[in-house]
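anyone else get weird line breaks when pasting these?? whatever heres mine. first is seq + tokens for prot A
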Amino acid sequence: MKQFKNLIAGEWVTGASEVENINPSDTNDIVGTASHASAAQVAEAIAAARQALPKWNAGTVQLRSDILSTISNELFARKEELGELLAREEGKTRAEAIGEVGRAANIFRFFASEVVRIRGEKLASVRPGIDVEITRDPVGVIGIITPWNFPIAIPAWKIAPALAFGNSVVFKPSELTPGSAWALADIIARAGVPAGVFNLVHGSGPVVGDALLNGVDAVTFTGSVKTGNQIVRRATERLIRVQAEMGGKNPLLVLDDADLETAVSCAVDGSFFQTGQRCTASSRLIVTAGIHDRFVDAVAARLDKIVIDHALKAGTQVGPVVDKRQLEQNLRYIDIGINEGAQVRVKGELLKRETPGHYLSPTLFTGSSNQMRINREEVFGPVAAVIRVKDYEEALSVANDTSFGLSAGICTTSQKYARHFQTHAEAGLTMLNLATAGLDYHVPFGGRKGSSYGPREQGTYAIDFYTILKTSYLSV
């Protein structure tokens, strides 16, 4: 059985306890054991990162670029192997998992180029004989905390810019996906990153996450609203830089003039694929009266044909829920929706397959209101609710009536409504005739309101979090 160890100061070390990593497609299959670090080991990792930081930052941008390119190349070369590992421990299909590894490879390749394009400015002072230069310094030791739903891509879009811009890293992955994190860390370590510059510590939030927040210079987090709020408070108390992506309750508007096939595809893909376990999932389907009934019928018919099975089985379209706790949460929200008075057009049911797993069919509610809990709180599963509205104006009002603001989509053939929505949707991402889930690797990612806190992730905008501007005056 594979043991997923911690990487501290360039050495692979066992932790204080071992926790089994269970395959959600086959709960009899143990992928490996994660070696959970102690708080003292986290402190050692932070100390190692701090000690390694000056030499790493003093190295050339070409060195950092070459190392990131090496990481990218190995991810590309091993994407099928790593994708299978990812699918086995997380539950997304093999095709989705391979695609995620490819995305991670592209992210490292992108930042391998960005590192040699770090820009500054030279300005004239208002005083004679003085020049002004504006440059960027690394922030320091970056604490990285990532979720289980994209266990290679999300770490990649945090680790790659952190290293590119001269920082050192202590990385805490989700307890549910230690294998993908270990595989990525192994590639990074062998790519030539000096000992201590990159560290991996497995474990729980109360132990490892808490210890991490005590010593780093900045923390970047993706995960739940509750945990994100706690991290933001802790970080601001210490006056350290913080970036938090915390989920969404994303609307997809379907207007009377929408192409029905397009709208149905957007809704089914965005709401139910990857088992609905995406922070950008379309969990609120806001549909105008003229198309409502046809849309609901078509979505229900499409859901009846979705193939739900083992993540690695050929032909599977949707895999299992990631673990028992998440499955129980999904079932609770289905009951909540029923008790609130929403109508069940398609009811999620526990499914039996050849292997024991956390299989759940999709749930589609109709007749729901925007004030119901199923439309206010993030379920993070294959559950979506239809809200019937009169017209575009009411649809936009309902879409914006939420504490979240990550992604928002609209299906329409009207340029007037499309442009108005792009301007007035209170979200960090807007989609026209596309699923709310899905983003390129080279563009900024983030939301508004309770979905996000701090600078954007990804693309050229990532530099704003991972560097500090310095203004220098020079007497000439």
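and prot B, same format (seq, then tokens)
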Amino acid sequence: MIEFILAEACNACGRCVEVCPTAVFDRMPDGLPKIARPGDCQTCFMCELYCREDAIFVGPDAGRIEGFDPQTTHRAGLMGEMRRHHGWDEWDGRYPNQHWRMEEVFLRARHLAAE
């Protein structure tokens, strides 16, 4: 389940807000995302995967928030771990991104749900 957003690392790009299939986030006036509906999180990790700043951490338990400490998690090197382990982006130019883009699927589904 979504645990936290490191505000100091977030660049307010809004990708997490756009790709979340269950609209867990609200975008604040300053552009930063806010976890508004954590209970709606499906633990799909899309927000974490699309966060190029590694500012979002999703815990492995889909049923509850586990209470990970943001600073401890950051110091342990866990921020961005999902992206690195899945080769989501190109890392050091050695791993070409071969993932097909899910964003169109989620954005389309979210648009249909809003109708």
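btw re prot B: The chain has a mean pLDDT of 83. Strands lie at 2-5, 25-27, 33-35, 56-58.
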